[in-house]
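Form 7-S
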Amino acid sequence: MRILTITGSIYGWTGSAVNERQLIMHLAKKVEKCYVITFVGFRQVFTKRRDELKIKMPQNTVIISIPFPFLTCIVMSCIIGIIAVILSKLRKIDFIYIRSSLYSIGFLVFRSLSKKTIVKIGGIVEDELSNKGIRQFYRRKLTPRLDRLVLARSKRVAVNNAELYNKLVKRRSFKHNREPLEIQAGVNLSLIKKVLTQSHEKIPRNNINIGFIGSLALWQGVDILVRALEIVKIYEPSVKLLIIGDGPMREEINRISKELDIDCKITGYLPHEEALSHLKSLDIMVLPRLRTPNTESIIPIKVIEAWALGIPVIVTRHKVFSDRYVDGDDIVFCETNPEDVARSILFLLQDRGTLLKLAKRGPELARDFSYDKIADRLLSAFIEK
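Output:
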């Protein structure tokens, strides 16, 4: 089997890049040839971030990287679609996986390609965009039309879960003639096993490590976590905050930490394996994310990886979690205010039994998100009639 994948950037250390890269790696291991068309930022080409481009992929993988400007994605989709028609007729490509409706137009206009194309729609894009900028304006206008094209012409539509699909159908006023394929973020269990066997002598363990991993964006609620620790340290003076990641809120987080006298370390962006090594050092991971249509329906990769490492997780009571997992048995829920986040942290720190139960339960939950299982599910959907 020869597959073609079109995705956003697989380079770098953001959750999205890490997730897509690992899924493609697991897909490639199960097929004869895997062609990958991905997009690369100019800073990754012309600055020190070029090291992010040095990734190791299976030998049967061919990567074609294209500069990332928004309109380039659409134009290149059309050009690549024409090339894919030729390759398909030459039997060089059996199936196509596209990570966003944004990249799909050049494939879905051709019947010979659309019948072998699965497109994943990750969310209701316009709900996550600001009202500023020409790029956001055009994405707001184009995305609903492209989503309807996907619903009308693709072989299957992939989504994070059925709830998101139902929202999508309602917003787009169009439904695919087949049930959606659920493709969520996953976990590389081999990498987790490697991290668990590593030594972490450089990371101190003589204190209580509360932490967060991910981009420091406003909707992540990291400022709420910092303010919560002001309350926690009254009862647990040895508590420290470890933030694994970087982003636009970094300066603000540093300011709040100093103002409240919180012992806070921000690592900056780290290679994936190194980030997991730091994640393993946490006693509790906390994600007080704000409620948005996407956060309500997506289980982020950081939660799954924390589970796999046996790290207890506190997260906002998003619908995607509360519908599937039990508070206190699988995960601990919080509301998006410092007082309730502090309450949840103190509950776990003072209830050793629940803390150990969550640590033991996490790896069991993570196994359901194995990339091997996700890749098998995707490949099975390709070959079904």
